Amino acid sequence: MNSKKVYIKNNRRTILIYILSILLALMWAAAAFGKLTDLDNFHNELVKSPLLEGFANTVKWVVPCGELLLAIALIYRATQLFAFYTSVFLLSLFIAYIVVIIRFSYYDIPCACSGFAEGLSWEGHLIFNASCMILAIVAIFISQENQQGSNTGLRRYCTIGQKPARKKWCYTFFSYRL
């Protein structure tokens, strides 16, 4: 494969990673701002949840601030992969919480969401969060594939001014670490 085809393929991957990171960052930022703009209502809804009522005062600050930090981390290329993994982790926690609410709740527990997700049912939240988690997983795979296909970072540093035999060793060693 010639270098122009590799560049175009990597460029497409970079654009797709950029689009996925913007979508996820917008989702996290909208969720955080929705909670922060109506913090009292968010706290009141948390108190009504049997799983979170003891932690409501802490959760009312940690969740929206964490969502904002995650939205910011998704924007910067240096922290994107970490932010994609964190998104998958948090979305899996939210999905587990929703499954517990749907499966084991005997009474109607209100949703503590605000903004665009406020009108969703619990099943709607489950589908939305699962969709966002799939996007984050796709972004992780594309990011890792893009890193392995490029000649940047430690691999490039390792090959500067070294003998060919050591270049091959360095490339092999660092290709498994990135």
Description:
This protein has one domain. The chain contains seven helices and no strands. The chain is mostly helical. Helix 1 runs antiparallel to helix 5 (122-149) and helix 4 runs antiparallel to helix 5. The longest helix is centred in the first third of the chain and has 35 residues, at 3-37. The model is unreliable at 151-178 (pLDDT under 50). It has helices at residues 3-37, 39-48, 56-75, 80-104, 122-149, 154-159, 164-175. The protein is elongated.
Features:
about 180 residues, mainly alpha, about 0% strand, disordered C terminus
Stretches with pLDDT under 50, minimum 5 residues = 151-178
Largest sheet: none
Terminal CA distance = 22 Å
Characterize the overall form.
elongated
Domains counted in the coordinates: how many?
1
Structural class call reads: mainly alpha
Helical percentage: over 70%
Tally of separate helices: 7
Mean pLDDT: 78
Secondary-structure element order, as H and E? HHHHHHH
Rg from Cα: 21 Å
The share of residues in extended strands comes to: under 5%
Number of strand segments: 0
Give me a quick take on this structure:
By secondary structure, the protein is an all-alpha fold. The protein has helices spanning 3-37, 39-48, 56-75, 80-104, 122-149, 154-159, 164-175.
SSE arrangement:
Blueprint: H1 3-37, H2 39-48, H3 56-75, H4 80-104, H5 122-149, H6 154-159, H7 164-175
